[in-house]
């Protein structure tokens, strides 16, 4: 009887000990790569029974080449590197891991929010250069009774709202897939898309990247925002039209932006965003803590274990097997 095979298309972890501890006792052998193209994915994964993938492009052509695959698991929340419809046509469930770093991303969101509103980087730079002011970088907005608006109302968004409310912020939110009662339970007012932009003093983005959400935050959206408002994005960079954001920041349509995700990563050293005092960029690291890293690997392997021990995966995103 041949062993089962799990193919790991690519990974940035120090090792795969977590996955091996869970799957090797089930008879899995590991094949690993650092695939950059769909062709490389197809070559590595052709005979795999299960696939773990982080950033590699699991394209429709690659999926068509799969002979034995029963499940594709994405290390992370977004699945935009996997052609989920192609997998669905082939009857392969695509699974994500939405719950491994909820608290870390929420913490990072609030860190960015506080840094951009309180102008922490600018103040630090002033102090380092010998400028000591007890009311620096004026004006700085107080948070009490200001409004945080959340675009999307999933687990991370809810965790962000809970933290923001502790700072005295009122919360509004938009998510057409969530009932108004769910918003009310957390003290959040459900609003429409236009109201979200026009009322928010801080807009925090928590959207997946889909055909519908790509560039959903563009010139029209920024024109609706207050000139004193701030934008924070820790979800998917492609939800924001980068050129439109640069124009909005340059033209003073919004007061600032704090971004952990970019439309194109890594960000170009020549990007105007890196030369703006009122823009903070971090390196898609909101998810990271050592604990979250281990949880991500463990939870991904457990999804494969569930399927191959007769259970259903917890987080199928393309409806296969539900």
TrEMBL record:
The answer to whether the entry has keyword Oxidoreductase is: yes
Q: Which residues form a coiled coil?
A: none
Q: What SUPFAM superfamilies does the entry give?
A: Formate/glycerate dehydrogenase catalytic domain-like, NAD(P)-binding Rossmann-fold domains
D-isomer specific 2-hydroxyacid dehydrogenase NAD-binding domain location: 110-286
What is the name listed in the Swiss-Prot or TrEMBL entry for this protein? C-terminal binding protein
Per UniProt, the keywords (alphabetical) are: NAD, Oxidoreductase
Q: Per its UniProt record, what PANTHER family does this chain match? A: D-ISOMER SPECIFIC 2-HYDROXYACID DEHYDROGENASE CATALYTIC DOMAIN-CONTAINING PROTEIN-RELATED, D-ISOMER SPECIFIC 2-HYDROXYACID DEHYDROGENASE FAMILY PROTEIN (AFU_ORTHOLOGUE AFUA_1G13630)
Report the residue ranges that make up the D-isomer specific 2-hydroxyacid dehydrogenase catalytic domain in this protein: 29-318
Q: Which Pfam families match?
A: 2-Hacid_dh, 2-Hacid_dh_C
């Amino acid at each position: 009887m041949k062993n089962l095979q799990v193919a790991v298309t690519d990974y940035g972890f120090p090792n795969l000990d977590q996955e091996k501890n869970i799957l090797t006792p089930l008879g899995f052998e590991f094949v690993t790569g650092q695939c950059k193209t769909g062709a490389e994915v197809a070559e590595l994964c052709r005979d795999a029974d299960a696939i773990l993938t982080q950033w590699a492009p699991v394209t429709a052509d690659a999926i068509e080449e799969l002979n034995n695959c029963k499940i594709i698991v994405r290390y992370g929340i977004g699945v935009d590197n996997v052609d989920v419809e192609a997998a669905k046509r082939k009857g392969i469930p695509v699974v994500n891991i939405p719950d491994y770093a909820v608290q870390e991303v929420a913490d990072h969101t609030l860190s960015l929010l506080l840094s951009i509103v309180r102008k922490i980087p600018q103040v630090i730079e002033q102090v380092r250069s010998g400028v000591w002011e007890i009311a620096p970088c004026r004006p700085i907005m107080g948070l009490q009774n200001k409004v945080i608006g959340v675009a999307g109302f999933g687990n991370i968004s809810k965790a962000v709202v809970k933290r923001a409310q502790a700072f005295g912020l009122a919360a509004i939110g938009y998510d057409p897939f969530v009932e108004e009662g769910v918003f009310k339970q957390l003290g959040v007012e459900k609003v429409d898309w236009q109201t979200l932009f026009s009322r928010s003093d801080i807009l925090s983005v928590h959207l997946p990247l889909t055909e519908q959400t790509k560039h959903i935050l563009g010139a029209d959206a920024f024109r609706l925002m207050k000139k004193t408002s701030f934008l924070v994005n820790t979800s998917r960079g492609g939800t924001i039209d980068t050129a439109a954001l640069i124009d909005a920041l340059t033209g003073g349509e919004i007061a600032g932006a704090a971004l952990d995700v970019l439309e194109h990563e890594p960000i170009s050293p020549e990007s105007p965003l890196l030369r703006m005092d009122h823009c903070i960029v971090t390196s898609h690291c909101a998810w990271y803590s050592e604990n979250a890293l281990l949880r991500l690997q463990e939870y991904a392997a457990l999804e494969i274990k569930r399927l191959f021990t007769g259970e259903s995966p917890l987080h199928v995103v393309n409806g296969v097997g539900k």
